[in-house]
Amino acid sequence: MTSGLRPVVTVVGPRAGRIEQVLPAGVDVVQAFAARRGIAHSLRALIRGLEGWRQVGAVCVGLADQPFVGPDAYRRLAAAYDAGATFAVATYKGQRHNPVLIGRVHWPAVMRLRGDVGARSLMDALAVVEVDCDNTGRPDDVDTTEDLARMQREMES
Question: Residue 42's pLDDT is what?
Fold first, then answer.
């Protein structure tokens, strides 16, 4: 929310009532009814949820399991869009990570994705602008309970 980009949309699975209850005011919710079928389903649900927002020319996609990605990463991707990029990816120490910016012109390609693939699968076919996001946060994933415990300790210190 602190990036200043709008709208802010959270994609949730079919049983996400608890998540919706704790989201900040102003966050729109899109439900991915078959989220278990893979990342592509959630990404397609997001695009469907934004199609009616004609003023939205691109979407910055981040993942909820990356709590240390900072708002400046999203701002840098938006600046790349303002400079003409229609597909961009954040880099940290030269490596591609989330968030990813997908211009509306590429949304039809997203709608063709299936299974457990996301925007990364489009990077071979599309011109992608790499956006240096060093010093904006970290792209660390919370994939295990050990990851979660480590990140909680870091947040408390």
Answer: 93
**Structural domain includes residue 3:** no
Tell me the residue range of the domain where 81 lies. Answer: 8-156
Strand blocks (E) in 7-126: 8-12, 27-31, 58-61, 87-92, 95-103
Whole-prediction pTM? 0.91
In angstroms, the CA 82 to CA 53 distance is: 18
CATH code of the domain containing 144:
3.90.550.10
Rounded distance, CA 15 to CA 34, Å? 11
Query: Which positions ≥6 away from 145 have C-beta within 8 Å?
Result: none
H helix intervals, 52-156: 71-82, 107-111, 145-156
| Tens-place pLDDT, residues 15-64 | 777 788 888 888 999 999 877 888 999 999 999 999 999 999 999 999 98
